[in-house]
Amino acid sequence: MKLKSKPLFKINEIQILILGFLLIIIVGAILLWLPISSENHTYTNFIDSLFVATSATCVTGLITVDTGTHWNYFGKTVILALIQIGGLGFMAFSTLIALILGRKITLKERLLIHESLNSFNIQGLVKMSKYILLFTFLVETVGAVVLSSQFIPQFGVYRGLFYSIFHSVSAFCNAGIDLIGEGRSLMPYYNNFTIIFTISVLIIIGGLGFYVWQEIYNLSFKYTKRLSLNSKVCITMAVVLLASGTILFFLFEFNNPATMKYMTSGDKLLSSFFASVSVRTAGFNSISISDMNESSKFLTIVFMFIGGAPGSTAGGIKTTTAALIIMTAVSVIKGRQETEIYKRTIKKDLVYKAIVIFIVYIILIFISALILGVTEKDESLETIIFECISAIGTSGLSFGTTPDLSIIGKIVIIISMFFGRLGGLTIILSMINRKIPKSIKYPEDKILIG
């Protein structure tokens, strides 16, 4: 009787997902490193190529070389492909290829899709993947058509069309990488309502999450009678953050001569709204981030840390995580034993997970800021913390210091972006061989709190 040999290394679904992202980043970095990608047809520093490939795949937006002027159309197309794959997850594209080839999706692949999409269960995942791909390409196409009405008259047909497609994909995927050049982002278009509002809508749609939009669609056509608690929380948090952000940015920057003081009232309101939309995870900006007031910078840091909804193209700890932590605090203050949201009791394991995610992100920010504090001695603590939170929150905003980072600093930000996109807790759990705990309950005791 022959005994089956056990594999030396057993890789789980989360580890495959992480390795898949790493492979995409490495391939993208090699392509960007080659002379065929740069405008002057010379090799690009590999660290910079790796940095940009990571930023694009992790839909962050931080860059060390100017996207609009350094790369030629081949290099820009590589970045565009990385943004699209990174925004949706490489398993969604693998599913698309499998469906085109007529190949059946295996159970293991369904488990991978489950991890990639962060779904509730594995039922209907293939159908969900089809919906995500169709929804994404439809929204991005509409966005590109609207943007082309502005970019084609300015840049000509071919360049204007490419710019429209690139910025539509970058906005929907919450990447924040632009082709305008010279680190200006969308500041030249601060008073162009069509461009700013279209980019805003694309960011909101991408950051709200595929599951939320599916439920909104089903509710609109009466396939379902009500939204799930998850969708209610995502929508509520999005509305609260958008409204409060718009009001606060307007108040903070209203008389700032370096940002909004000399704008019309309508442009001030539009810029405030765009800032509220974009700073959470998209990385575009229509006003100078480094010239904002300290209150606006602090608000930006908070928004970058929170991010968007789960199951979306956005980053951060996610709006639902923030909502759980806030409502847990409210429940404790009210003397309740359980966390309650919309007259529903939340399971304690979800509350614990939310708290752990919050702590993990704080630790990652602390470690990365600690290292940059040593390697980037010329930068202020505010600049370093802002850069670290922007990387881990995959926001992509910066005070303009990213290109000047040391090699170690760039590597730290690369790792931070990677952790931020896949989730710090996900990566940590993939490294730990978790076993089912024994059914042992230790005696209860007390410690002093507060």
Automatic annotation (TrEMBL):
Keyword Metal-binding: no
Residues in the signal sequence: none
Pfam entry (one): TrkH
Parts of the chain that traverse the membrane: 14-34, 46-65, 77-101, 131-152, 193-213, 233-252, 298-330, 350-372, 407-432
Protein name: Trk family potassium uptake protein
Record organism: Clostridium kluyveri (strain NBRC 12016)
Membrane association type: Multi-pass membrane protein
Keyword annotations from UniProtKB, A to Z: Cell membrane, Ion transport, Membrane, Potassium, Potassium transport, Transmembrane, Transmembrane helix, Transport
GO CC field: plasma membrane
InterPro entries: Cat_transpt, TrkH
Molecular function via GO: potassium:chloride symporter activity
Subcellular localization, as worded in the UniProt entry: Cell membrane
Membrane found in the keyword field: yes
